[in-house]
Amino acid sequence: MAEQIPLYPVRSAAAAASCKRAAYFSAAGPGPGAERSSRYQLEDESAHLDEMPLMMSEEGFENDESDYHKLPRARIVRRKRGLEWFVCGGWKFLCTSCCDWLINICQRKKELKARTVWLGYPEKCEEKHPRNSIKNQKYNVFTFIPGGFVLAVTIMREAIDEFRRFQRDKEVNSQLYSKLTVRGKVQVKSSDIQVGDLIIVEKDQRIPSDMVFLRTSEKAGSCFIRTDQLDGETDWKLKVAVSCTQRLPALGDLFSINAYVYAQKPQLDIHSFEGTFTREDSDPPIHESLSIENTLWASTVVASGTIIGVVIYTGKETRSVMNTSNPKNKVGLLDLELNQLTKALFLALVALSVVMVTLQGFSGPWYRSLFRFLLLFSYIIPISLRVNLDMGKAAYGWMIMKDENIPGTVVRTSTIPEELGRLVYLLTDKTGTLTRNEMVFKRLHLGTVSYGTDTMDEIQNQLMNSYSQTQSQASGNNASSTLPRKAQSSAPKVRKSVSSRVNEAVKAVALCHNVTPVYEARGAAGETEFAEADQDFSDDNRTYQASSPDEVALVQWTESVGLTLVNRDLTSMQLRTPSGQILTYCILQTFPFTSESKRMGVIVRDESTAEITFYMKGADVAMSTVVQYNDWLEEECGNMAREGLRTLVVAKRALTDEQYQDFENRYNQAKLSIHDRTLKVAAVVESLEREMELLCLTGVEDQLQTDVRPTLEMLRNAGLKIWMLTGDKLETATCIAKSSHLVSRTQDTHVFRPVTSRGEAHLELNAFRRKHDCALVISGDSLEVCLKYYEHEFVELACQCPAVVCCRCGPTQKAHIVKLLQQHTGRRTCAIGDGGNDVSMIQAADCGIGIEGKEGRQASLAADFSVSQFKHIGRLLVVHGRSSYKRSAALSQFVMHRGLIISTMQAVFSSVFYFASVPLYQGFLMVGYATVYTMFPVFSLVLDQDVKPEMAMLYPELYKDLTKGRSLSCKTFLVWVLISIYQGGILMFGALVLFESEFVHVVAISFTALVLTELLMVALTVRTWHWLMAVAELLSLGCYVASLAFLNQYFDVPFIMTVTFVWKVSAITVVSCLPLYVLKYLKRKLSPPSYSKLSS
Q: Which residues bind Mg(2+) per the record (predicted)?
């Protein structure tokens, strides 16, 4: 084949040499394959909205009231028909519809249905239910069939992660549990558990599947479970066994009864459940309603006693699995930009090959020549870029986790460290993120008198006097009757009135909650089973457990003023007075707190007086409509909220026996209904919530995290726009925003008025448009209305604000806001949270940061980066985010330059020899060039830094430049392309001009100059030298010099030992590099970057 390729060198002196070496130049080896274009594409799903035109100028603001009448009618668009419709896009619609139909057929999901579960007889189940095994793997075996050597590093990393997930799943699925059968207990694997099985779960053991709680070893008929791995809350939850099965004498009696459980179809909501328990072999049949307190969800842990439950949902149908969303594979902005540049390089490769074939004149089998040119110029495609970047990202992650200034930081997603340097929007939770989630009782307001932290001793004295008077009245009234009339009818009457109100308020706070005192076990018993008289009520041994830290703070406060909660079970509660007397209350009903009702209540009977009282507490918006008329509640709630306190309104209502019996009958009937149970139960409870006596208003403070203020100020100076998304009330959120300096003291705050309709939203948006440079505060309900009618206009206005506070936001709404910012602005977003309600927002953001806080580790585990304190975020972004982005940008462009320069040399070589498709370098030279000769210096760029960490922290304004993407842009890419063309042309033409008798000298001179040029270019690119960089340069140079002795098949070894070789190589290298050094020096002198001004 070599003889068929005509070689006509430009210089006649080289004719003989070129003919001799024709065979050498004709052995072209196939180059590696080109990496295809990116899979990741941004889809613009712009929906056609009938948007109302908002006023864009100041002229129209004169007539605000007429705005509502200017609402345009919906536009009527004439529909195209027939052939016109088909040609104008109908064919696309038909194809899309057919594809969607096929996808729906292939991905049709099994319909979820309610089921009847027979106790202990899984074979009676009519339907086939999924296996109770957990599968968290993302891939199957065929995913890891290697697609090429270049992807080996990435594939190996994913395979290792996947194998670890498989091992974790196997460990969970292999856990053994005791299964109760007719023949006794048998051991069964978690993955082999079926619907209908009776499973025994010991203390501190994970619950394997969703179950209905039948029995417990605890005498009270209840147990505690830990739910931190399900909902992110660290407080224990109280669960109640089905009373019918709890009363059975022994475990084996579960098989002697004929009973079943009716369970609703599997659903996402972990906070609700509707079902019934029916025992058919009794006369009459026993029907018992089941609610959330009778359930044990999978992935929770038993915290007390041993429990027995009947399995109702397994595998994919469990609440924990249904709530596990498959997070999107996050791709960094840098990777997307590199994908676009790689596409451009691929087009350049094809264009260059076509030009070469065209200049050849399409002679002979031109398609073979085209294919050969594609292989020869394939180094234009930066094949090794993916491997270099993956290794660089791993190095950045290691540096972040080893940083002593941010201890406890964990990198959970190693593919997007550069995103930390490109963020524009920062969306943060409030409770537990900006605040500590450590509640401290601060204020008690009775309407006419208010008590703060400095006057709590007055409450303590009044309680002591009140209960001592009550005790003396119980022993006899003789002393009080002998007092002078004047003493009875004067000032003490007022004190008695205030004292009784304080007494009622403190007693209501001490009774209206779901807190349970827990006493640690002592000795070897292992169970906290005390006799009534022998219970250890010592304060040192008691801790409080509740689903909310607010509740614990309230009960701890009542203890501090003298009224202590010492014991609680399902049916009773005991309080200890300041004098040591034990007050016992029978719990008749409990109404737990829900996000819909925003309040909780309890009905108790005082054992000493038989009085029945309904206590209720909740948010002011929910309680203001159920309490008697007053003129102070709304004002004082606003005052406390402005102080940053979380407020709760406490009220009571006395009930007669007849009133309670009527309520209980209606309530039990509503709880047994299968359809619309929640609505019916709520309607019955609301019948009690009328004309309640307002007792007090409480204020609890949630303290700020350490160094929140300077951190937020640093991030704001860095150019980030910070949005706070919280479920708290508007006043509290506004106060925390100001106290944390999220909103500066000098900034105005625009509170978006509540809107419920399109017209109201229109007027309010126009009013907001007039404001300039002010922070926005908006509630979740108003936000929903604005997004429904004016999504684009609202986001456009909100993005112009320096800060935005969204209060009363749910988890789904938080994630929706993140996606809106991504779609409308195209900028990178970061979400920060600490609880399970923040997981959706964290997973939706381009970069998710979780904080390990009081609410558990769910947010931390779901995030891309995990930190221990909010203040660490500043250094994570302005130092590590900057370094990661700058280093990856330099590394990527240098890898592309490395391929472009050798492709340029190949193009010059082929052009000189009449566009012959023969390789310039062969065999080991090409492999060595991309590996041992240049790999270490190029990769050492991951150690480079343009600004010292101290300087980046001192001047966060430097971060603003990163968001513009100037380190890797079309401009910098074109600069590197021009550098590559210049250097490749100089190296190749210089070698052709300077070689004399032997053509093989061209290879020796050009390749040596190429390697030296690459090493010098790395030195030119470096901004701050690290000792490892110098080692990498010397190591690569040493490897090349040492390998010259073994490359006699490519080089003329005697020639490379001569002075002629040295001066020719030096001359070509100097000509290729010196102008670039001069240009770099002049640019730094004439137009220095911002960081260099600070450094000097």
A: 429, 431, 834, 838
Structure token pair of residue 426: 């920062």
Phi-psi bin for 299: left (phi > 0), alpha (psi -120 to 50), beta? left
Alpha-carbon span 723 to 806, nearest angstrom: 8
Which residues, including other chains, have CB under 8 Å from residue 835's CB and lie 6 or more apart? Answer: 232, 233, 429, 431, 432, 853, 855, 856, 858, 859
Q: Any binding-site annotation on 275? A: no
In the DSSP assignment, the letter for residue 419 is G
User: Which residues have CB under 8 Å from 1064's CB, separation 6+?
Assistant: 990, 991, 994, 1005
Order of strands across the sheet with 286-290?
Answer: 115-118, 259-263, 275-279, 286-290
DSSP state of 348: H
Query: Please, which residues have CB within 8 angstroms of residue 733's CB and are 6 or more apart in sequence?
Result: 430, 724, 726, 777, 805, 807
In the predicted model, is pLDDT for residue 765 greater than 60? yes
206 is in an annotated binding site: no
Cα distance between residue 179 and residue 192, in whole Å:
11
The answer to whether the CB of 423 falls within 8 A of the CB of 828 is yes
Alpha-helical runs (H) found in 59-202: 82-85, 91-106, 152-173
Characterise 826 by phi-psi region: left (phi > 0), alpha (psi -120 to 50), beta (else): left
| Residue of 228, 335, 429, 550 with catalytic role | 429
- Which class in CATH covers the domain with range 117-140+175-323? mainly beta
- Other Cβ atoms less than 10 A from the Cβ of 1021: the count is 17
Confidence of residue 472 (pLDDT cuts 50, 70, 90): low
Instruction: Tell whether the model's pLDDT for residue 586 goes beyond 80.
Output: yes
pLDDT in tens, 816-849: 899 999 999 989 999 998 876 788 889 889 999 9
Q: How far out from the chain centre does Cα 108 lie?
A: 29
Residue in 976, 1016, 983, 999 with CA at minimum distance from that of residue 920 = 999
**Which of 940, 895, 1012, 929 minimizes the C-alpha distance to 385?**
895
Ligand-binding annotation for 162, yes or no, is no
Cα separation, 291 vs 243, whole angstroms? 13
Beta strand pairing call for 847-851 and 828-833: parallel
According to the annotation, is 834 in a ligand binding site? Answer: yes
* Other Cβ atoms closer than 10 A to 130: 16
Contacts of 987 (CB under 8 A, 6+ apart): 901, 905, 1006, 1009, 1010, 1013, 1068, 1072
The answer to whether residues 437 and 891 touch, using CB atoms and an 8 Å cutoff, is no
* 1064 carries a ligand binding annotation: no
Give, in order, the Cα–Cα distances in Å from 878 to each of 136, 418, 891, 948.
35, 11, 20, 11
Q: Sort strands 582-591 and 572-576 into parallel, antiparallel or unpaired.
A: antiparallel
478, with CB counted inside 10 A (0-12, 13-18, 19+), is exposed
Q: Provide the residue ranges of all domains of the chain, joining segments of one domain with +.
A: 117-140+175-323, 380-405+875-1093, 425-437+704-871, 441-462+499-517+541-701
pLDDT band of residue 815 (cuts 50, 70, 90) is: confident
Domain 441-462+499-517+541-701 has CATH 3.40.50.11030: no
pLDDT-above-70 percentage for the chain: 80
The helix/strand/coil state of 895 is helix
Question: Which amino acid, residue 967?
Answer: S
Asked if domains 425-437+704-871 and 441-462+499-517+541-701 share a fold, the reply is no
CATH 3.90.1150.10 at 425-437+704-871, yes or no: no
Structure tokens given for 190:
């978690």
**Do residues 861 and 400 lie in contact, with contact meaning Cβ atoms separated by under 8 Å?**
no
Can 539 be counted among the known catalytic residues? no
Question: Tokens 């047994």 sit at which residue?
Answer: 672
**How far apart are alpha carbons 453 and 215 in whole angstroms?**
45
Tell whether 646 is in a known binding site.
Answer: yes
Distances (CA, A) of 749 to 164, 744, 746, 769, 928: 50, 10, 10, 13, 63
